[in-house]
Hints:
By secondary structure, this protein is an alpha/beta fold. It is 36% helix and 17% strand.
Amino acid sequence: MAVAQGGRKAFVVGGTGETGKVLLQELLKRNTFQRLVSISRRKVEYQDESYNKLEQTVVDFDKLESDHSEAFQGFDVGFCLLGTTKGKAGAEGFYKVDHDYVMGTAKLAKENGCKHFVLMSSKGANEKSTVLYSKTKVRL
Length: 140
């Protein structure tokens, strides 16, 4: 197993989604960061002992900027994989998660000194698209 380099610290937002789960597994396996925190709307009970080093912070994304700035303090790298579907959340809910929550996360990361912010967006993002998904992703 690789040794965490230089005491770097990272957070992952969206780690409970399908892609986020894979990223968390890979980051834990590679032991790239001295501290790794999953910031999400709920705590997850992991069975695999590889998750023992993962810290979890629960936030209310609707109150992210007003109540949870401290959750984003002290990180070198932030990974944002937030996303939902129009089918699960409706058009308004989709925009809130895929745009507003992402923008709030990026703002707090920057304000709290995060040096690198990695956003997973989408192939085919296009501001002229008639598809809400593609239009929303290009606005980030």
